[in-house]
Amino acid sequence: MSEDHRTLLRAMFDAAIDAAHPSVCLPAFLETIAPPKGRTIVVGAGKAAASMAAAVEKHWPHPIEGLVVTRYEHGAPTSEIEVIEASHPVPDAAGRAAAGRILAKVQGLTENDLVLALISGGGSALMALPADGVSLEEKQAVNKALLKSGATISEMNCVRKHLSAIKGGRLARAAAPAKVVALMISDVPNDDLSVIASGPTVPDPTTREDALAVIAKYKIDAPAAVLAHLATPDCETPKPGDAIFDRVENILIATPQGSLDAAAAVASRAGFTPLILGDLEGESRDVALVHAGIARQIARHSQPIAPPVAIISGGETTVTVRGKGRGGRDAEFLLALTLALEGFGGVSAIACDTDGIDGSEDNAGAIMTADSFARAAAQGVDLKALFANNDAYTAFEKLGDLVVTGPTRTNVNDFRVILVPKPAR
Question: Global pTM?
Answer without folding.
Answer: 0.90
